């Protein structure tokens, strides 16, 4: 059953950590603020049987692991930094219901609503005390937990779902995080991306090309253009 998004006078904020390309990533978002949350780790530990894979060949997408859960899941000490960079999107009150319907479809495959404080990047505004975030919890059937990175990369290389290739999701996330600014990169995402490219090269395929023949660089350039456009719009809206 879908979880209702509480209606407030000013709408709500949503933290994006898997798709952070541009303001246009989310319908009716009128503000996009780069920044981070703390106390979590981003990992490719969630199966996708709809958007980036199928029931036969589930893709791999990111979820967030609470720092307090990490040790019990992995039987190892958590990494020292538990800061996850992404983007907070603001949805005005008049579009809350419509956006919830959209999110119910996009995040239906194993994600649930949680709330966390959000810290904007330098010069991007004040902290947001309550930011909504969709997380694939360990109790979800789609939660896979830790995986061998080479096996993970091989699965990402070959999987495809209704929203496109799994590797496109990975490579776009990697580049989008770089576009957020210094310090926003994610070691786990970068390592998985490196190994996924190697899978393609080992198979004699072009690691810089998506399955539809479109180059990764062309897709990344779209991210850069969208991000630059968002920044111009945000500057124009400032008083």
Account of the protein in words:
The chain has helices at 67-74, 96-106, 149-158, 166-179, 187-202, 216-237; strands at residues 12-16, 31-38, 40-48, 59-66, 83-91, 112-120, 128-135, 160-161, 164-165. A hairpin with a 7-residue loop joins strand 6 (112-120) and strand 7 (128-135). The radius of gyration is 17 Å and the shape is globular. The chain starts with 11 loop residues before the first strand and ends with a helix. It has 239 residues and is α+β, with helices and mostly antiparallel strands. Helix 3 packs across helix 5 and helix 4 packs across helix 5. The strands form 3 sheets. It has a 5-stranded antiparallel β-sheet with strand order 1-5-2-6-7, with no helix packed on it. Strands 3-4 form a two-stranded antiparallel ribbon. It has a two-stranded antiparallel sheet with strand order 8-9. 34% of the residues lie in helices and 25% in strands.
Mean pLDDT over the full residue set: 84
Number of strands: 9
Strand order, largest beta sheet: 1-5-2-6-7
Unreliable stretches (pLDDT < 50, length at least 5) are: none
Indicate the overall shape: globular
Helix percent band: 25-40%
> How many helix segments?
6
Give me the oligomer status. single chain
Q: How many angstroms separate the termini?
A: 41 Å
Q: What is the C-alpha radius of gyration, as a whole number of Å?
A: 17 Å
What percentage of amino acids are in beta strands?
A: 25-35%
Structural class: alpha+beta
Largest sheet properties = 5 strands, antiparallel
Order of helices and strands: EEEEHEHEEHEEHHH
